């Protein structure tokens, strides 16, 4: 940490990111994201909050054991039971970090903690000291830091450092700060804490006012050396500072910031797509850096300029983000080798088994579509390569519907461990509702449909459609995705995908 120009990226997609409503991921999905974060080259992966649940504990433990490269962090309150649970989950990490916290603002101390300043300082010292005996590194966060009085914050930080913390994270927990204000606050801490030279300053900014990235960058200008962020900016309420935006702002405007990062930018797009696929949260078209329109030019003047010289209207090279622009078209005569090479160029590294599954799906799609482009391939891989065992697989769907007919669906499923096909028919308010009810008959489950979204992945009359469903079962949310040129089939696959997750996690 001696290089003052080096900025460290602390990714909290698996912890704070997952706290967004409906963002729950199972362990295998978390592992997939963690491995991709490692390929991206983030410095720290906050894998979860081990004390929160057995699932969180197991996820942190698996990530610590299986993901190499980044420091693996676990969140914990300054309580012995939390700290010990985090340490146990992190025991296999090549480098572990306990990230511990306690609120320090007047409003939190009075209404939530019901503690005095001295009691808070005592708990910080005790908790950080104990954490330091359990992990390679300790990071301390004064919760609601941006609303904490500066004079008390200086005492808090000094206490945490004296107890052994080498990273001090100043969170804008409720997204209240403005860039000028937050930057000045960070500068005052850096200059006012007597032992600040023994630790680095980190920031964790929320996006409630749309200022998370701006606040993070302002903090860097004023001395912060670590930014806590999440892929696609997901997180509680309005989310966190978006990793891809912070990274590309620093790299694109290196002339201004003069900072260095350790990430591999060509993995940014793939990381964004991976997180989107695992969480079921589609990106808005105009999302900075990774949105569908981020490098689209419709204005004639802009198009003319880009054709003559890309830098006239593009400040970043999309290829450096891993966005392949040549969009090579494949068809039904394309072979396995060409297919595999194209997936590799798009950033997909598949096992032999997954490649076989994806190639079969590609051939099936090629019989329906004359041309298959990169977006189709991304949809195939996202849809076909599941990260959980499939208890149920869709064999066929048959729909009867019309203006004067009661919508009826007949569904055939393959159930793991059974040779014979299982079939059922059901009526519904519409064809998709009928499909879902037929699946419920076959599985014996009746989850509540929380939300249903459909998006055209590609253009044209034979476009691939992607359906995302959120099902509620036993007070838990399960996300399912499915893609097909047929919206009914895509809906069935999405629903079955979510049902398989229910079976995997609860049965």
Question: Which descriptors would you attach to this protein?
Answer:
TIM Barrel; 3-stranded antiparallel β-sheet; 3 domains; Double Stranded RNA Binding Domain; 8-stranded parallel beta barrel; 14 strands; 507 residues
Helix-strand layout with pairing:
Layout: E1 8-11, H1 27-40, E2 44-48, H2 54-66, E3 71-77, H3 80-89, E4 96-103, H4 106-113, H5 117-132, E5 137-143, H6 150-162, E6 167-172, H7 179-192, E7 200-205, H8 212-221, E8 226-229, H9 243-252, H10 254-257, H11 268-279, H12 300-308, H13 336-345, H14 352-366, H15 374-384, E9 392-402, E10 405-415, E11 422-427, H16 431-443, E12 448-456, E13 465-473, E14 476-484, H17 487-506
Helix pairs in contact: 1-2, 1-11, 2-3, 5-6, 6-7, 7-8, 14-15, 16-17
Top-tier CATH class of the largest domain: Alpha Beta
Query: Averaged pLDDT, please?
Result: 90
SS class: alpha/beta
Query: Could you list the spans in which at least 5 consecutive residues all have pLDDT below 50?
Result: none
Largest sheet: 8 strands, parallel, barrel
**How many whole angstroms does the radius of gyration measure?**
25 Å
Number of strands: 14
* DSSP helical segment count: 17
Strand order of the largest sheet: 1-2-3-4-5-6-7-8
The total domain count is: 3
* CATH homologous superfamily annotation of the largest domain: Aldolase class I
Shape field? globular
Helix content: 25-40%
CATH fold-level assignment of the largest domain: TIM Barrel
CATH architecture of the largest domain: Alpha-Beta Barrel
Distance between the termini: 46 Å
Amount of beta strand: 15-25%
């Amino acid at each position: 940490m001696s290089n003052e120009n080096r900025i460290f990226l602390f990714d909290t997609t698996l912890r704070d990111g997952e706290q967004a409503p409906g963002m729950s991921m199972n362990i295998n999905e978390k592992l997939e994201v963690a491995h991709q974060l490692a390929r991206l080259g983030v410095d720290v992966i906050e894998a979860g909050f081990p004390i929160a649940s057995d699932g969180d504990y197991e996820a942190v433990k698996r990530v610590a054991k299986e993901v190499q490269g980044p420091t693996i962090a676990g969140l914990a309150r300054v309580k012995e039971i939390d700290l010990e649970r985090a340490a146990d989950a992190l025991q296999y990490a090549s480098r572990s970090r306990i990230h511990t916290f306690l609120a320090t603002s007047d409003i939190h101390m009075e209404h939530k903690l019901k503690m005095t300043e001295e009691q808070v300082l005592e708990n910080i010292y005790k908790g950080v000291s104990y954490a330091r005996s359990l992990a390679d590194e300790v990071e301390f966060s004064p919760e609601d830091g941006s609303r904490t009085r500066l004079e008390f914050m200086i005492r808090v930080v000094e206490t945490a450092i004296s107890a052994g913390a080498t990273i001090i994270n100043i969170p804008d927990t409720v997204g209240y700060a403005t860039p000028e204000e937050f930057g000045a606050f960070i500068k005052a801490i850096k200059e006012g804490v007597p032992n600040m030279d023994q630790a680095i300053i980190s920031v964790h900014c929320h996006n409630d006012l749309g200022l998370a990235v701006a606040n993070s960058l302002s903090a860097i200008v004023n001395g912060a050396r670590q930014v806590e962020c999440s892929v696609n900016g997901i997180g509680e309420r309005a989310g966190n500072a978006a990793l891809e935006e912070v990274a590309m702002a620093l790299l694109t405007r290196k002339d201004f910031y003069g900072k260095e990062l350790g990430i591999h930018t060509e993995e940014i797009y793939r990381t964004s797509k991976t997180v989107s696929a695992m969480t079921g949260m589609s990106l808005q078209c105009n999302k900075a850096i990774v949105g569908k329109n981020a490098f689209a030019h419709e204005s004639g003047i802009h198009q003319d300029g880009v054709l003559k010289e890309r830098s006239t209207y593009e400040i970043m090279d999309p290829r450096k983000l891993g966005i392949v622009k040549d969009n090579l078209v494949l068809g039904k005569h394309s072979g396995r080798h060409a297919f595999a090479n194209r997936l590799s160029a798009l950033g997909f590294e598949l096992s032999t088994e997954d490649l076989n599954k994806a190639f079969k799906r590609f051939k099936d799609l090629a019989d329906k579509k004359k041309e298959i482009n990169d977006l189709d391939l991304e949809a195939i891989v996202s849809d076909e390569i599941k990260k959980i065992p499939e208890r149920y697989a869709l064999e066929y769907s048959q729909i009867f519907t019309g203006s004067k007919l009661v919508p009826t669906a007949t569904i055939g499923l393959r159930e793991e461990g059974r040779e014979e096909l299982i079939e059922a028919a059901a009526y519904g308010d519409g064809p998709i509702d009928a499909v879902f009810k037929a699946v419920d008959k076959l599985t014996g489950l009746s989850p509540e449909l929380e939300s249903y979204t459909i998006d055209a992945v590609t253009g044209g009359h034979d476009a691939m459609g992607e359906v995302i469903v959120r099902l509620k079962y036993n007070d838990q949310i399960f996300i399912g995705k499915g893609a097909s040129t047929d919206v009914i089939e895509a809906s069935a696959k999405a629903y079955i995908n979510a049902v398989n997750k229910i079976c995997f996690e609860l049965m």
